[in-house]
Amino acid sequence: MNVEPRKRKDFFIVKYILFLKNFGVPPLLSSIAFGGLFLSTAAIFYAIRATTVSLGYLCSLSWLAIGPFLIYKARPMVDGLWSDMTKILGKEEVEELQSYESDFYSYRFLFVAVPLAIVACLASILAIASTLKFSSSLSLAYASFFVVSWITLALVGSIGVWGVAQLIRLILAIRRYNLKLDPLSFDRFGGMKFLADFGIKGTAMYSSGALLIPIMIEIATQSGLYREIAQVVVAYSGLYALSVLLSFLVQVFALHIAAVKGRNDILKLTSGQYQKLLADYEKEPSSDIGLRILVLQGLFEETLQMKVYPFDLGIVLKLIGSIALPIVLGTINFWFPWIPMH
Known about the structure:
mainly alpha
Protein backbone atom coordinates (compact mmCIF):
# COMPACT_ATOMS: atom_id res chain seq x y z
CA MET A 1 0.00 0.00 0.00
CA ASN A 2 1.52 3.31 -1.10
CA VAL A 3 0.82 6.70 0.46
CA GLU A 4 1.94 9.66 -1.59
CA PRO A 5 3.80 12.49 0.18
CA ARG A 6 1.87 15.73 0.34
CA LYS A 7 2.86 18.75 -1.70
CA ARG A 8 5.09 21.14 0.20
CA LYS A 9 7.40 24.08 -0.29
CA ASP A 10 11.07 23.26 0.01
CA PHE A 11 13.36 25.29 2.24
CA PHE A 12 15.56 27.90 0.57
CA ILE A 13 18.69 25.84 1.14
CA VAL A 14 17.08 22.75 -0.46
CA LYS A 15 16.01 24.83 -3.47
CA TYR A 16 19.66 25.88 -3.87
CA ILE A 17 20.83 22.24 -3.85
CA LEU A 18 18.05 21.12 -6.22
CA PHE A 19 18.90 23.96 -8.62
CA LEU A 20 22.53 22.86 -8.87
CA LYS A 21 21.48 19.22 -9.07
CA ASN A 22 19.68 20.03 -12.33
CA PHE A 23 23.10 20.91 -13.74
CA GLY A 24 24.65 17.65 -12.56
CA VAL A 25 26.20 18.94 -9.32
CA PRO A 26 26.01 16.30 -6.53
CA PRO A 27 24.08 17.51 -3.46
CA LEU A 28 27.01 16.89 -1.10
CA LEU A 29 29.30 18.97 -3.31
CA SER A 30 26.72 21.78 -3.37
CA SER A 31 26.59 21.72 0.42
CA ILE A 32 30.38 21.77 0.72
CA ALA A 33 30.53 24.67 -1.74
CA PHE A 34 27.98 26.59 0.34
CA GLY A 35 30.05 26.17 3.50
CA GLY A 36 33.27 26.69 1.58
CA LEU A 37 32.10 30.15 0.54
CA PHE A 38 32.02 31.22 4.19
CA LEU A 39 35.23 29.39 5.10
CA SER A 40 37.14 30.88 2.17
CA THR A 41 35.93 34.39 3.04
CA ALA A 42 37.12 33.89 6.62
CA ALA A 43 40.46 32.67 5.28
CA ILE A 44 40.79 35.83 3.16
CA PHE A 45 40.21 38.04 6.20
CA TYR A 46 42.82 36.05 8.06
CA ALA A 47 45.31 36.26 5.17
CA ILE A 48 45.08 40.05 4.96
CA ARG A 49 45.29 40.21 8.76
CA ALA A 50 41.92 41.85 9.18
CA THR A 51 41.36 39.59 12.16
CA THR A 52 42.60 36.49 13.89
CA VAL A 53 40.38 33.63 12.75
CA SER A 54 39.91 31.29 15.69
CA LEU A 55 39.47 27.54 15.79
CA GLY A 56 36.00 27.91 17.26
CA TYR A 57 34.88 30.21 14.46
CA LEU A 58 36.18 27.81 11.80
CA CYS A 59 34.48 24.86 13.53
CA SER A 60 31.18 26.72 13.48
CA LEU A 61 31.51 27.73 9.84
CA SER A 62 32.41 24.17 8.89
CA TRP A 63 28.89 23.15 9.93
CA LEU A 64 27.57 25.13 6.95
CA ALA A 65 29.35 22.60 4.74
CA ILE A 66 27.28 19.68 6.08
CA GLY A 67 24.11 21.33 7.44
CA PRO A 68 22.49 21.97 4.02
CA PHE A 69 23.21 18.40 2.91
CA LEU A 70 21.60 16.99 6.06
CA ILE A 71 18.48 19.08 5.48
CA TYR A 72 18.37 17.89 1.86
CA LYS A 73 18.71 14.25 2.99
CA ALA A 74 15.78 14.70 5.37
CA ARG A 75 13.53 15.28 2.35
CA PRO A 76 13.57 11.70 0.91
CA MET A 77 13.58 10.29 4.46
CA VAL A 78 10.27 12.01 5.20
CA ASP A 79 8.82 11.10 1.79
CA GLY A 80 9.63 7.41 2.23
CA LEU A 81 8.27 7.25 5.76
CA TRP A 82 4.58 7.09 4.88
CA SER A 83 4.61 3.92 2.77
CA ASP A 84 6.51 2.12 5.53
CA MET A 85 4.00 3.45 8.06
CA THR A 86 1.20 1.49 6.38
CA LYS A 87 2.84 -1.68 7.72
CA ILE A 88 1.73 -0.78 11.23
CA LEU A 89 -1.23 1.56 10.59
CA GLY A 90 -4.20 1.85 8.24
CA LYS A 91 -4.02 4.18 5.24
CA GLU A 92 -6.53 6.63 6.75
CA GLU A 93 -4.53 6.86 9.97
CA VAL A 94 -1.29 7.45 8.04
CA GLU A 95 -2.92 10.24 6.05
CA GLU A 96 -3.97 11.86 9.34
CA LEU A 97 -0.38 11.76 10.54
CA GLN A 98 0.83 13.43 7.34
CA SER A 99 -0.19 16.77 8.85
CA TYR A 100 3.14 16.58 10.68
CA GLU A 101 4.90 16.58 7.31
CA SER A 102 3.24 19.91 6.47
CA ASP A 103 4.38 21.28 9.82
CA PHE A 104 7.93 20.08 9.15
CA TYR A 105 8.16 21.95 5.84
CA SER A 106 6.45 25.10 7.12
CA TYR A 107 8.32 28.35 7.70
CA ARG A 108 7.34 28.33 11.35
CA PHE A 109 10.92 27.32 12.05
CA LEU A 110 11.51 31.09 11.97
CA PHE A 111 10.01 31.21 15.46
CA VAL A 112 13.22 29.49 16.49
CA ALA A 113 15.57 31.12 13.98
CA VAL A 114 14.72 34.81 14.39
CA PRO A 115 15.22 35.08 18.19
CA LEU A 116 18.40 32.99 17.89
CA ALA A 117 19.75 35.20 15.11
CA ILE A 118 18.97 38.42 17.01
CA VAL A 119 20.63 37.25 20.23
CA ALA A 120 23.65 35.79 18.42
CA CYS A 121 24.16 38.92 16.30
CA LEU A 122 23.90 41.27 19.28
CA ALA A 123 26.38 39.18 21.24
CA SER A 124 28.72 39.01 18.23
CA ILE A 125 28.56 42.76 17.54
CA LEU A 126 29.27 43.65 21.16
CA ALA A 127 32.09 41.13 21.37
CA ILE A 128 33.92 42.24 18.24
CA ALA A 129 33.22 45.90 18.97
CA SER A 130 35.39 45.61 22.06
CA THR A 131 38.32 44.24 20.07
CA LEU A 132 37.98 46.01 16.70
CA LYS A 133 38.00 49.67 15.78
CA PHE A 134 35.54 50.41 13.02
CA SER A 135 37.70 53.17 11.61
CA SER A 136 38.56 51.22 8.48
CA SER A 137 36.28 49.80 5.83
CA LEU A 138 38.12 46.48 6.23
CA SER A 139 37.13 46.18 9.88
CA LEU A 140 33.55 47.08 9.01
CA ALA A 141 33.53 44.47 6.23
CA TYR A 142 34.73 41.79 8.64
CA ALA A 143 32.12 42.76 11.23
CA SER A 144 29.41 42.60 8.56
CA PHE A 145 30.60 39.17 7.39
CA PHE A 146 30.64 37.93 10.97
CA VAL A 147 27.02 39.00 11.48
CA VAL A 148 25.87 37.55 8.13
CA SER A 149 27.50 34.23 8.93
CA TRP A 150 25.71 34.10 12.27
CA ILE A 151 22.35 34.85 10.67
CA THR A 152 22.96 32.04 8.17
CA LEU A 153 24.00 29.64 10.91
CA ALA A 154 20.88 30.51 12.89
CA LEU A 155 18.56 30.02 9.90
CA VAL A 156 20.06 26.73 8.73
CA GLY A 157 20.51 25.35 12.25
CA SER A 158 16.96 26.17 13.28
CA ILE A 159 15.53 24.02 10.47
CA GLY A 160 17.09 21.00 12.17
CA VAL A 161 15.78 21.99 15.60
CA TRP A 162 12.28 22.47 14.18
CA GLY A 163 12.43 19.19 12.27
CA VAL A 164 13.36 17.16 15.36
CA ALA A 165 10.53 18.83 17.30
CA GLN A 166 8.03 17.69 14.62
CA LEU A 167 9.56 14.21 14.61
CA ILE A 168 9.02 13.91 18.36
CA ARG A 169 5.42 15.10 17.96
CA LEU A 170 4.86 12.47 15.26
CA ILE A 171 6.22 9.59 17.32
CA LEU A 172 4.26 10.68 20.39
CA ALA A 173 1.09 10.85 18.26
CA ILE A 174 1.57 7.29 17.00
CA ARG A 175 0.91 5.98 20.51
CA ARG A 176 -2.75 7.02 20.19
CA TYR A 177 -3.39 4.40 17.50
CA ASN A 178 -3.77 0.64 17.67
CA LEU A 179 -0.65 -0.60 15.93
CA LYS A 180 -0.59 -3.72 13.73
CA LEU A 181 2.70 -5.12 14.99
CA ASP A 182 4.24 -8.28 13.56
CA PRO A 183 6.03 -10.29 16.28
CA LEU A 184 7.59 -12.48 13.58
CA SER A 185 9.18 -9.53 11.76
CA PHE A 186 12.87 -9.97 11.00
CA ASP A 187 13.67 -6.66 12.73
CA ARG A 188 12.61 -8.20 16.09
CA PHE A 189 10.80 -4.96 16.92
CA GLY A 190 7.36 -5.81 15.62
CA GLY A 191 8.04 -4.21 12.23
CA MET A 192 8.71 -0.73 13.73
CA LYS A 193 12.47 -0.71 13.20
CA PHE A 194 12.08 1.67 10.24
CA LEU A 195 10.49 4.23 12.56
CA ALA A 196 13.25 3.80 15.14
CA ASP A 197 15.91 4.26 12.44
CA PHE A 198 14.13 7.39 11.22
CA GLY A 199 14.16 8.86 14.72
CA ILE A 200 17.81 8.00 15.31
CA LYS A 201 18.86 9.64 12.03
CA GLY A 202 16.83 12.73 12.89
CA THR A 203 18.51 13.04 16.27
CA ALA A 204 21.95 12.54 14.72
CA MET A 205 21.22 15.40 12.30
CA TYR A 206 20.15 17.57 15.21
CA SER A 207 23.32 16.76 17.17
CA SER A 208 25.49 18.00 14.29
CA GLY A 209 24.49 21.52 15.36
CA ALA A 210 26.82 21.09 18.32
CA LEU A 211 29.52 22.40 15.98
CA LEU A 212 28.11 25.86 16.74
CA ILE A 213 29.13 25.57 20.38
CA PRO A 214 32.84 26.48 20.03
CA ILE A 215 32.14 29.97 18.67
CA MET A 216 29.74 30.65 21.54
CA ILE A 217 32.48 29.73 24.01
CA GLU A 218 34.94 32.03 22.26
CA ILE A 219 32.52 34.96 22.19
CA ALA A 220 32.31 34.58 25.95
CA THR A 221 36.03 34.17 26.61
CA GLN A 222 37.86 36.34 24.06
CA SER A 223 36.35 39.60 25.21
CA GLY A 224 36.71 41.00 28.71
CA LEU A 225 33.11 42.14 28.46
CA TYR A 226 31.96 38.52 28.26
CA ARG A 227 34.60 36.74 30.30
CA GLU A 228 32.48 36.79 33.45
CA ILE A 229 29.64 34.89 31.73
CA ALA A 230 31.85 32.17 30.30
CA GLN A 231 30.54 29.73 32.90
CA VAL A 232 26.98 30.45 31.75
CA VAL A 233 27.88 29.70 28.13
CA VAL A 234 29.58 26.47 29.13
CA ALA A 235 26.46 25.54 31.10
CA TYR A 236 24.24 26.24 28.09
CA SER A 237 26.53 24.09 25.96
CA GLY A 238 25.85 21.28 28.39
CA LEU A 239 22.11 21.98 28.22
CA TYR A 240 22.25 21.70 24.43
CA ALA A 241 23.88 18.29 24.75
CA LEU A 242 21.18 17.26 27.20
CA SER A 243 18.48 18.49 24.80
CA VAL A 244 19.87 16.22 22.07
CA LEU A 245 19.90 13.24 24.42
CA LEU A 246 16.41 14.13 25.64
CA SER A 247 15.08 14.28 22.07
CA PHE A 248 16.53 10.80 21.55
CA LEU A 249 15.15 9.41 24.81
CA VAL A 250 11.65 10.83 24.25
CA GLN A 251 11.47 8.98 20.94
CA VAL A 252 12.88 5.78 22.45
CA PHE A 253 10.41 5.69 25.32
CA ALA A 254 7.47 6.67 23.10
CA LEU A 255 8.29 3.75 20.80
CA HIS A 256 8.85 1.55 23.83
CA ILE A 257 5.35 2.34 25.15
CA ALA A 258 3.85 1.71 21.70
CA ALA A 259 5.74 -1.60 21.39
CA VAL A 260 4.68 -2.77 24.85
CA LYS A 261 1.04 -1.87 24.15
CA GLY A 262 1.11 -3.61 20.75
CA ARG A 263 2.81 -6.70 22.19
CA ASN A 264 0.32 -6.93 25.06
CA ASP A 265 -2.58 -6.66 22.60
CA ILE A 266 -1.17 -9.55 20.57
CA LEU A 267 -0.55 -11.63 23.71
CA LYS A 268 -4.08 -10.98 24.93
CA LEU A 269 -5.59 -11.93 21.56
CA THR A 270 -3.38 -15.01 21.22
CA SER A 271 -4.16 -16.12 24.78
CA GLY A 272 -7.90 -15.82 24.13
CA GLN A 273 -7.65 -17.87 20.93
CA TYR A 274 -5.48 -20.45 22.70
CA GLN A 275 -7.99 -20.91 25.53
CA LYS A 276 -10.82 -21.32 23.02
CA LEU A 277 -8.93 -23.88 20.95
CA LEU A 278 -7.92 -25.75 24.09
CA ALA A 279 -11.57 -25.97 25.15
CA ASP A 280 -12.52 -27.20 21.66
CA TYR A 281 -9.76 -29.82 21.79
CA GLU A 282 -10.96 -31.12 25.13
CA LYS A 283 -14.47 -31.53 23.69
CA GLU A 284 -13.38 -33.11 20.42
CA PRO A 285 -9.66 -33.91 20.04
CA SER A 286 -8.36 -33.61 16.47
CA SER A 287 -5.00 -33.20 14.76
CA ASP A 288 -6.16 -29.97 13.08
CA ILE A 289 -7.00 -28.26 16.39
CA GLY A 290 -3.83 -29.67 17.98
CA LEU A 291 -1.71 -28.20 15.17
CA ARG A 292 -3.38 -24.81 15.56
CA ILE A 293 -2.69 -24.94 19.32
CA LEU A 294 1.01 -25.60 18.63
CA VAL A 295 1.13 -22.70 16.16
CA LEU A 296 -0.43 -20.37 18.72
CA GLN A 297 2.04 -21.52 21.36
CA GLY A 298 4.91 -20.71 19.00
CA LEU A 299 3.42 -17.32 18.18
CA PHE A 300 2.97 -16.60 21.90
CA GLU A 301 6.63 -17.41 22.59
CA GLU A 302 7.84 -15.30 19.66
CA THR A 303 5.71 -12.39 20.84
CA LEU A 304 7.17 -12.62 24.35
CA GLN A 305 10.69 -12.40 22.85
CA MET A 306 9.89 -9.33 20.73
CA LYS A 307 12.15 -6.38 21.58
CA VAL A 308 10.48 -3.35 23.12
CA TYR A 309 13.49 -0.99 22.97
CA PRO A 310 14.63 0.16 19.49
CA PHE A 311 18.32 0.83 20.09
CA ASP A 312 21.60 -0.73 21.16
CA LEU A 313 24.75 0.44 22.93
CA GLY A 314 26.57 1.20 19.66
CA ILE A 315 23.93 3.73 18.60
CA VAL A 316 24.08 5.49 21.97
CA LEU A 317 27.90 5.73 21.84
CA LYS A 318 27.81 7.23 18.34
CA LEU A 319 25.24 9.79 19.43
CA ILE A 320 27.22 10.79 22.51
CA GLY A 321 30.40 11.06 20.41
CA SER A 322 28.74 13.40 17.90
CA ILE A 323 27.82 15.74 20.75
CA ALA A 324 30.98 15.42 22.87
CA LEU A 325 33.59 16.28 20.21
CA PRO A 326 32.43 19.84 19.45
CA ILE A 327 31.85 20.56 23.13
CA VAL A 328 35.41 19.45 23.91
CA LEU A 329 36.72 21.72 21.13
CA GLY A 330 34.65 24.59 22.41
CA THR A 331 35.53 24.32 26.09
CA ILE A 332 39.16 23.25 25.92
CA ASN A 333 40.39 26.84 25.90
CA PHE A 334 38.23 27.67 28.91
CA TRP A 335 39.58 24.82 31.03
CA PHE A 336 43.14 24.95 29.63
CA PRO A 337 43.81 28.62 28.69
CA TRP A 338 47.52 27.99 27.95
CA ILE A 339 46.63 25.84 24.91
CA PRO A 340 46.91 27.97 21.72
CA MET A 341 43.59 28.14 19.87
CA HIS A 342 44.50 30.65 17.13
